[in-house]
Design a protein that fits this description.
Chain B: This is Sn-glycerol-3-phosphate ABC transporter ATP-binding protein UgpC. The complex is a heterodimer. Chain A folds into 2 domains: 66 residues, no CATH class; 208 residues, MetI-like fold (Orthogonal Bundle), CATH 1.10.3720.10. In chain A, 69% of the residues lie in helices and 0% in strands. In chain A, helix 2 packs across helix 14, helix 5 packs across helix 11 and helix 8 runs antiparallel to helix 11. By secondary structure, chain B is of the alpha+beta class. Chain B folds into 2 domains: 230 residues, Rossmann fold (3-Layer(aba) Sandwich); 117 residues, Nucleic acid-binding proteins (OB fold (Dihydrolipoamide Acetyltransferase, E2P), Beta Barrel). In chain B, the strands form 4 sheets. Chain B has a 6-stranded mixed beta sheet with strand order 6-7-8-3-9-10, with helices on both faces. In chain B, strands 13-12-11-14-20 form a 5-stranded antiparallel beta sheet. A 5-stranded antiparallel beta sheet of chain B has the order 15-19-16-17-18, with no helix packed on it. Chain B is elongated and about 75 Å long. The chains are: A mainly alpha, B alpha+beta. Chains A and B meet through helix 9 and helix 10 of A and strand 6, helix 3 and helix 5 of B. The complex binds adenosine-5'-triphosphate and magnesium ion. Adenosine-5'-triphosphate (ATP) binds next to strand 2 and helix 1 of chain B.
């Protein structure tokens, strides 16, 4: 290339891309389908948001998808602060807090343990390692319902029945199977020579884990956190089985709220409650979803 | 700095035998080069010396002491891996300094050692980068740096220069040799490059399919190859192998070249008694052929058809034909020769080797 830009080259770069009619039609069709499908999926959410912002009179008079004429957050405020759930009338806020007290420790502990397990299974050989990993994998496929009764017995024995720490334990035990699998499958893609180099350099078990492996693991850490947090947050079965009264998670509370309201059904409050229960998981997805797609192994090996 | 003994080491992965009864020992300060075709077990042998891989039987000794039960870090070795194996999340500086950090060296001393090595390898300007931001050659130098920053008993290098451009490779080759001379370090070095093997080694071990073919000095390997495999693997172009039959002559046995009406005296290197009528291969390095002068020389002569001429700079490789057999010769540039000619070539048989045609083992 000379310093003077070649004119045909410049034109090729600058020329607007024109599509022939068949291609154009194809595009329109594809985008049309996408828009319709997106609308279909978003309609329930839109309906929930609209309904939660309406007063009861407006709900009775309007349609499901109509825009609120006089938007109000009264329903949101009332379910948060003062709605009656079973016998107590303190709103959802306490249960919302419970869910955090359950989901955050359960997520951190199960992801931490899973990372450690995955590291051991991927890197270090010991007697019976494959059998043990097989058993852990098997844990992923045990339906929740099967463990309910033995788990209740265990919690009773430990004196944790009906408490938040008890629920955390249940979620950790159940979640560790998944996180172990995630981390192990991620770590086996790390070239073996990196571990060899670290061992020659004098790094031990923990140094290899913390200094070499963890810093390149954040994509899988994010995946595990999102998986675990949403799973634990959205759990209903364990919550309703193992938590009592004021230690129940928000999913159970929303259910009680919707089912125990006396007199007319307050649709706006039901919708607001459901929205509140769903918000943290939505936020997590929006904030951390992009880490799903990232890899960090670039430059570790030849090529 | 230490001597190294590899005594009857075997290694199998399940039923696959990868190393078979390897026996090599080198003195303190020697430079051992392992060569052999891809997959012959060179990297596996290095891993066993390093303690990263367990051998199936045999012993490894360092400084005369068996180290079979020692962890890699207890063996006091440094290793450069074939795939570099840099730590992706660390900067170049941290990569090079990691082993020092693990041995709890104070920060100030560490920084100084790292910067010295970085200067040596011309990567000082890259210290703050991560491996992902480096070219292949730069990564290779970082991997070298990670080993050089330590002062281990033994250095293990697994093809450390394979990814460098020709100029850098020659520079690094000299640099490693200089380092070897300066530190007097014991080095085990794997390479595919024969020039590297010949120029750097004090000992060469040639392997094939997990079997040690020959272990000796570069001169041993080049001039006195133990078998046909070593003869053709080392040297480029490879040694010519001319089928011949042993015949009786007036002053002892002679070699009658097949397909040519010539008999040659038995090279002086042959000590074994050869039975007349047995089939052999006469090994001739391309540089042992030269264009015969007009007058009859002391060396035996062969008249050959000049087929192809390949100039390489300092030398010309000439493909010659005797019947349908091809013979390569290496002549000085400027030799007056044209393809299509028939010329007489003198054979220097003083170093020629004779192999058994059946077993391929040198007589
Ligand atoms: N972990 C393993 N399990 C099974 N077979 C293995 C394993 N590691 C190496 N091998 C086999 O052992 C043989 C020797 O491998 P090695 O890596 O030592 O070869 P190499 O001489 O270093 O080859 P190259 O020059 O290509 O690097 C090969 O056939 C390889 O397939
Ligand atoms: Mg190799």
């Amino acid at each position: 290339m000379t310093a003077v830009p070649d004119s045909s080259f410049a034109m090729a770069l600058g020329r607007p891309r024109s599509l022939n009619p068949t291609k154009m039609f194809g595009r329109i069709f594809v985008y049309g389908c996408l828009v319709v499908l997106a609308a279909l999926f978003l309609a329930p959410l839109a309906s929930m948001v609209m309904t939660s912002l309406k007063s009861m009179e407006e709900i009775r008079s309007g349609t499901l998808l109509s825009v609120p004429q006089a938007p109000t957050i009264e329903a949101w405020a009332s379910v948060w602060n003062s709605a009656c759930i079973s016998v107590a009338c303190g709103g959802l806020q306490g249960y919302f807090g419970n869910s955090f007290l359950i989901a955050v420790p359960a997520t951190l502990i199960s992801v931490g343990l899973g990372a450690l397990n995955g590291y051991v299974f991927s890197t270090w050989r010991f007697r019976g390692d494959n059998v043990l990993f097989g058993l852990i994998l098997f844990g992923c496929f045990i339906p929740l319902q099967i463990v309910l009764i033995p788990m209740a017995g265990l919690l009773g024995m430990l004196g944790l029945a009906g408490t938040i720490p008890g629920l955390v334990l249940v979620h950790v035990v159940y979640g560790v199977c998944f996180t172990t699998m995630f981390f192990r499958n991620y770590f086996v893609t790390v070239p073996a020579e990196i571990f060899k180099a670290a061992r020659v350099d004098g790094a031990g078990f923990w140094a290899i884990f913390f200094r070499i492996l963890l810093p390149i693991s954040w994509p899988i850490v994010m995946v595990s956190i999102i998986w675990q947090f949403t799973g634990v947050w959205n759990d209903f079965l364990f919550g309703v089985s193992f938590a009592a009264g004021s230690s129940q998670p928000i999913t159970v509370a929303v259910n009680n709220l919707v089912n125990t309201s006396t007199g007319t059904k307050a649709y706006n409050e039901d919708m607001a409650a459901a929205m509140i229960a769903a918000l943290p998981t939505i936020v997590i997805y929006v904030a951390a979803g992009r880490y799903f797609l990232r890899g960090l192994m670039a430059g570790a090996v030849k090529g | 700095m230490a001597n190294l003994g590899i005594n009857h080491v075997t290694k199998s992965f399940g039923s696959l035998a990868v190393l078979k009864d390897i026996k090599i020992s080198i003195e303190d300060g020697e430079f051992l080069v392992l060569v052999g075709p891809s997959g012959c077990g060179k990297s596996t042998l290095l891993s066993i010396i390093a303690g990263l891989e367990e051998h199936t039987s045999g012993t490894i000794t360092i400084d005369g002491r068996p180290v079979d039960d020692l962890e890699p870090k207890e063996r006091d070795i440094a290793m450069v891996f074939q795939s570099y194996a840099l730590y992706p999340a660390m900067t170049v500086e941290q990569n090079i300094g990691f082993s020092l950090e693990m041995s709890k060296m104070p920060k100030a001393e560490r920084v100084e050692r790292v910067s010295k090595v970085a200067d040596l390898l011309q990567i000082s300007h890259l210290l703050k980068r991560r491996p992902g931001q480096l070219s292949g050659g730069q990564r290779q130098r970082v991997a070298m740096g990670r080993a050089l920053v330590r002062e281990p008993k033994i250095f293990l290098f697994d093809e450390p220069l394979s990814n460098l451009d020709a100029k850098l490779r020659v520079e690094m080759r000299t640099e490693i040799k200089r380092l070897h001379q300066r530190l007097g370090a014991t080095i085990v070095y794997v390479t595919h490059d024969q020039i590297e093997a010949m120029t750097m080694a004090t000992r060469i071990a040639v392997m094939k399919d997990g079997v040690l073919q020959q272990f000796g000095t570069p001169e041993d390997i080049y001039d006195r190859p133990a078998n046909v495999f070593v003869a053709t693997f080392m040297g480029s172009p490879p040694m010519n192998l001319l089928p011949a039959t042993v015949v009786d002559g007036a002053s002892g046995p002679r070699l009658s070249l097949k397909g040519a009406d010539v008999t040659l005296p038995l090279p002086s290197s042959v000590t074994a008694r050869l039975e007349p009528g047995s089939d052999v291969l006469l090994g001739l390095r391309p540089e042992w052929l030269s264009l015969a002068a007009e007058e009859v020389s002391a060396n035996p002569m062969l008249t050959l058809h000049v087929d192809v001429i390949e100039p390489t700079g300092p030398d010309v490789f000439v493909a010659l034909r005797a019947g349908e057999r091809e013979i390569m010769a290496r002549l000085p540039t400027g030799t007056p020769i044209r393809s299509g000619e028939k010329r007489a070539f003198a054979l220097d048989l003083s170093k020629a080797v004779v192999f058994d045609a059946g077993t391929g083992i040198a007589h």
